Amino acid sequence: MTCKDAENLIPQFLDDDLDNKDLSDFLHHVDTCPECREELTIQFLVQVGMKRLEDGKNFNLNQELTVLLGDAKKRLTARRYLVLLSYVLEAAVVVMFGACIVLALAL
Ligand SMILES: [Zn+2]
Predict the structure, then answer these.
(1) What is the pLDDT of residues 45-84, one digit of tens each?
(2) For residue 26, how far is its CA from the centre of ligand 1 (angstroms)?
(3) Does some domain include residue 107?
(4) Tens digit of each residue's pLDDT (9 = 90 or more) over 6-27
(5) Domain for residue 76, yes or no?
(6) Residue 41 falls within a domain, yes or no?
(7) Which of 6, 8, 15, 27 is the most exposed place for a label (fewest CB within 10 A)?
């Protein structure tokens, strides 16, 4: 992923609107690219900071961004497990179906 790609994905990331592959590439990029991490931080501060100011609550945005990035990684892991699980279930269905046919033929 290039810096331009990553920058373009920042709004979607903040809206939690990336698919697994883009999210994975994006998280990897901002982990390894200080410029894009900085850009993400700025856009995050603008988007969330404005909202917090309106709410008038105390906030620690740097910590919130760290939490947000951590959550995104956890969600990505969870989604990958779900994809894997769906393959396993699909395989199980195929095996069961095969077993039913074998049983039907044998009985
Ligand atoms: Zn970059």
Answers:
(1) 888 777 777 777 667 878 888 899 999 999 899 888 888 8
(2) 9
(3) no
(4) 999 999 999 989 999 999 999 9
(5) yes
(6) yes
(7) 15
Would you state the pLDDT for residue 52?
A: 76
Cα 27 to middle of ligand 1, angstroms: 11
Q: How far apart are CA 45 and CA 8, in angstroms?
A: 17
Q: Is residue 69 part of a domain?
A: yes
How many angstroms is it from 7 CA to the middle of ligand 1? 7
How many other C-beta atoms are found inside a 10 Å radius of the C-beta of residue 4?
9
Range of the domain at 9: 3-80
Angstrom distance (rounded) from CA 68 to CA 61? 10
Q: How many whole angstroms from 54 Cα to the centroid of ligand 1? A: 31
CA of 38 to the centre of ligand 1 (A): 9
Distance CA 85, CA 67 (A): 27
**Overall number of domains in the chain:** 1
Residue holding tokens 């995050």?
44
